[in-house]
Please model this.
Amino acid sequence: MQSTSMPLQSRKRKRDVSNADNEVGERIGKIPRCTVGLKHPAPFAEELVPANAQPYERVTMEEAKRGTRLERPVRVYADGIFDVFHSGHARALMQAKGLFPNTHLIVGVCSDDLTHKFKGFTVMNEDERYDAVRHCRYVDEVVRNAPWTLTPEFLTKHRIDFVAHDDIPYSSAGSDDIYKHIKEAGMFAPTQRTEGISTSDIITRIVRDYDLYVRRNLQRGYTAKELNVSFINEKKYHLQERVDKVKRKVRDVEEKSKEFVLKVEEKSIDLIQKWEEKSREFIGNFLQMFGPEGALKHMLKEGKGRMLQAISPRQSPSSSPAREERSPSPTFRLPFFNKSSPPPSPSPHHSGARGGGYLVSEDDSDDDEDDDN
Model:
């Protein structure tokens, strides 16, 4: 166990303030930051001022895993290029932060000159890469212009206990593994790479879909000069964009027509179902009215009976009333006889003239019949 009488160190953070405030900053101890509710990015290493110049004594792996005092966190260092900062970078830093219960994570970012010399050109410049890393929630401190190979002087200057990196040998700068001496010193803490995403993969996607992204940026207002595109290629991309717009419109029309056909089919199915229901109801009503035992048949039977009853003669009474009891028949004058006309010759069935004309009555005809008898 190393000595635990290490004095408390503090650091100074230069905070961005408004024009009205000119605060220099505050000195805080080198303890793990609370990542919940962070309001400021991680500070740069040169912004932190140590409280004293006591020699730094490393902790062992067993001590680090067991957990150190709150004021003595395990200082873990992770370095890289961090170009086009993505989730793979963030996962690696998250693993480094979670290596031990009490961890202070220091992240070193190489400069443009060093990166272009040993690895190649980057998409983001060094300032953009510094700023991207310091806004990661797992980072407690950022070292700008980090060295390509870690020297004992650098490890002592930043009081580093362990170096976190994936365990795959990293060959560069004439060495098969630039972390070989770190592994031999027992200061190496391995992390796992995130498969399926890397800066090289993202750049490969952009190169593969170059035409697509050029057309995208031309549509968003970038000039051909800014995109390093020739005049002919610019016109070609504009033509392709117009053709694609026509294709999209045709596709939209096809989709809308399909939707319309589906709606028509649904409505036709509904209409057929309703027609079937109404037809069944109509057939039922028709059978109730005109069927073999329908209401119309009963109405016809009833009407036929009433008609037969109306036209059939009534039965004569068994005994007719006496002649004298019968009411006298009314007399009537023939319309074709008047006072100026000569009287017709008397017939055996009619006799007598009354008032200038012949009056015939049922009683007279009966009397005549009696006389004949």
Remarks:
- The radius of gyration is 60 Å.
